[in-house]
Amino acid sequence: MLTKEEYIKLYEKYIAGHCSAEELSQLQDYQDKFQLEETIWDEEAMGDKADVKARLYARLHREMQTDNDNQATYWKSMRKWWGYAAAAILLVIGGLYWLVADKDTSFVDKTETIVIAPGGDNAILVLDDGTEVSLNELHLGNVTINGKVWANKAGEGELRYGEMAEGEIRYHTIRTPRGGQYQVILADGTKVWLNASSSIRFPTAFIGTERLVEIEGEVFFDVQKDTEKPFVVKSDNQEITVLGTQFNVMAYPDEEGVKTSLIEGKVAVDIAGSSYTLRPGERSVYDKTKRQVTKETFDPEEILAWQEGYFMFNEESIEHVMRKIARWYDVEVEYKGNMKGKLFSGTVSRFGQVDEVLDMLELTGTVTFKIEGRRILVMG
């Protein structure tokens, strides 16, 4: 039986993709025999311990049996389970907690019965003359405005630019609200994913010697390679230059830093007059208050999480965690008490109701929540 520390170390090795077949077997065996002995179990608040364990095991077992027809799909199913299956695993400083995402027990004080649902595909297209078009209200197919075909709505949550935007070049902006996300394919084939409260300004076709776009919020890029025409991303106090690569930029105005995380390829990041080269697995962090830049490594799963439908926290403060929740669920957050030193790590689906996410955070015993309409009070 693995200890908690051994499990965490092995789990992190799995996330990095470095586990051997024997180590994967150890992880699965640990799941088969997991214990809750390290946690003080409050049955009045958390429910019957044996029942929770039984429901968790049954739920995980169903997930792991999905798509088990061949080895390739089996490992894909295993990876999905470890990341964001129906049973959410929350690793928190000071304890190891397991819980079931569809449990009946709720720890969050709700003074009103308003259901706070998760976000979804939702965005506004803004033309260069200021005209705003709700992409959700458009039918699938060509997007025609004032007799001009600009793009194609290829599916719910996806807009494609291309040959239909030939002729006079215009600059469009796609903006997601709180609780929204959207995918855009630019005229050069570059794929763009916008997280909640984010935007991208881009030309309807790329001409000249570079492909320049401007963003705010959090945006993931899969850039179409073009050695003759570099792709340039401008955001808060920085400029990123690439030829073809995958990377994520988080540049929210309310965050203390701007993070550029490289998944694949190579990028040059210019910040405050200095240039930094990133390789896969590295990211730059620009501290807006100190006006300092640092480079660090990161877990790719952490960056890909929001596109794949889940939150992933990595020793993040409660304030940072709640900012993510506030953007996705379109809620306001207030704090009461001392929040210093409250760090959270773990994964949880983005598609449950907000009280399900808060219930999981409350199991740490470090914070409690009270929901009043669309306002969440965090109490330490």
UniProtKB/TrEMBL annotation:
InterPro entries, per database record: FecR, FecR_C, Ferrdict_sens_TM
Coiled coil: none
Transmembrane stretches, start-end: 81-100
Alphabetical keyword list: Membrane, Transmembrane, Transmembrane helix
Pfam families according to UniProt: FecR, FecR_C
GO molecular function, one term: sigma factor antagonist activity
PANTHER family referenced in this protein's UniProt entry, alphabetically: PERIPLASMIC SIGNAL SENSOR AND SIGMA FACTOR ACTIVATOR FECR-RELATED (PTHR30273), PROTEIN FECR (PTHR30273:SF2)
UniProt protein name: FecR family protein
Organism this protein belongs to: Sphingobacterium corticibacterium
Lineage: Bacteria, Pseudomonadati, Bacteroidota, Sphingobacteriia, Sphingobacteriales
